[in-house]
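Exercise 7. Predict the structure of Tryptophan--tRNA ligase, mitochondrial from Sparassis crispa.
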Amino acid sequence: MLACTRTARRLRPCALCPASAIALRFDNIRRSLSSGSDAVNDTARSKPSSRVVFSGIQPTGIPHLGNFLGALLNWVQLQRDAQPDDRLIFSIVGWHALTLPQDPRALSTARREMMAVLLAIGLDPERSIVFHQDDNPNHTELAWILNCITPMGKLRRMTTWKSRLAASRNARDDADVDESLLNAGLFTYPVLQAADVLAYKTTHVPVGEDQQQHIELARDLADTFNRTFKNRGPLFPLPQHVVTTSRRVLSLKDPSSKMSKSAPDKQSRILLTDSALQIQAKVRAAVTDSITGITYDPLARPGASNLLAILAACLGEDVTEAAKRYSDKGHVHLKADVAEAVEEMMKKPRAEFERLREEPAYLTSVSAAGAAKARELSEATMREVRERVGLV
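Solution. The predicted structure, encoded as tokens:
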């Protein structure tokens, strides 16, 4: 039971979408979790164990629709579809947030609010381990050890630190990035991300396409550690990414780029906290085109295609099938349906979030309980790591 000033209760996942829609959107996640045979190398396979799923999210403001559809709903579905022996670990990665400048007060609030978000969307702290990464020092200890076996060349080939720096400066693309602004934390954060995963001997990591390079690095570092310190066989399984079907949600104002918290125009994104009226206003103002009829053509008609993709994701439909219903309709009709679908999907978790954010004592108790479980698991790993590298 959680130590709380009120009676601890089981948080049930909220009904975010119709059952048929959920089944369609996440069918491939079930297949990925049920296969899993290549998540470990041949030696590690001789020691069967439950699957371990890990993923993290940064506490950098209220999640937008892209975060919601691209990651958070996947986590809820992974929880629903997990086998009884599967271990599910979801972390709010505060140390990663520090790789870019943060206002301390705003970050403190964002940490607490992100915990409320994760509980509001349906993550159950009695089924999954939900915790703040920065409450577990084993992550940074393992990151340092992995840093010491990571070639600089591998980190220079990582593309995501340039993307993050470009986004923080609202640069047009990675080519506009001024590398003089690069700090050591941003350069090496992929190693910390690998440590986040390996600390729990993770076998499966749900990530988007833009994060697959990080999983490859985690696999490389696990393999390097296993081969370098092989006194008792491999220590780390080689984690594999869980493929998700979620489409990338693009900016409502600039459909050539993805929806982002850092975009200057607040009308470009839909936040979890937006009211029905705000959602309607933002969708109505979304960029489209003057072509008669609605078709799905991301290259020629990115604005309309983005709205169709959002509608299909909310309803759990194939986007090309959804587009057929609008072939003889205009953008006004499409936008009205998109706004309604987004509101229907967001209203329950939004209401639960608003309730939970006013219960700091409960959020603290959930965070503490999750961190204790995470430390216990990762400490078992770190005892083996320290012994192998000679730190005992």
